[in-house]
């Protein structure tokens, strides 16, 4: 597989991870109700996300409510909002930077500068993966801690929702795609550096006259 194909593959994985982060940010299923009571028949399910919480009735009806106050939110929700929005913006920057320095585009002439731009795009994708991993692990730690805390009533216990798993999958795509983009820059540099060849000068004939083939 050539470096250009690896670069396109890394860019595709980075875009999928970026879309996954946006999807996880918007979904309200970061925490869901944990059914640990003896009676498994429940009337409603509670979903809690970064921007709203939803109540799903057993009949299928769902009601969602956006959080009223930002300052009244828990610190993990505030940090999750900030980091996911930053990652969404950085993902767009990484996409534009990588496309500008990609081998399949002609925005910049091939050379060291183009290779460095590709490395910068891959590094931004890796940074996005690291940043989005912070709120995901923070939420998971809180959910697991409260689940095994005997002082928390069963009605307040939560489980990890689908948004966390989507976020972890997006993190893996961002990290892997960023690493592929950075790794392909080395082979790109080797392909663009052509050896310089020198040709030997023509020697005049023994009688100090040029060869007849030089004349038209």
Automatic annotation (TrEMBL):
Entry keyword annotation includes Lyase: no
Domain of life: Eukaryota
InterPro entries: Claudin (IPR006187), Claudin5 (IPR003551), Claudin_CS (IPR017974), PMP22/EMP/MP20/Claudin (IPR004031)
Record has Phosphoprotein as a keyword: no
Gene Ontology cellular-component terms listed: bicellular tight junction; plasma membrane
Segments passing through the bilayer: 7-30, 82-105, 117-144, 164-184
Gene Ontology MF annotations: structural molecule activity
Cell compartment(s), UniProt: Cell junction, Tight junction; Cell membrane
Keywords: Cell junction, Cell membrane, Membrane, Tight junction, Transmembrane, Transmembrane helix
PROSITE patterns membership: CLAUDIN
Membrane topology designation: Multi-pass membrane protein
PANTHER family noted in UniProt: CLAUDIN
Function: Claudins function as major constituents of the tight junction complexes that regulate the permeability of epithelia.
Family listed: Belongs to the claudin family.
Protein name stated in the entry: Claudin
Annotated source species: Ramphastos sulfuratus
Gene encoding the protein: Cldn5
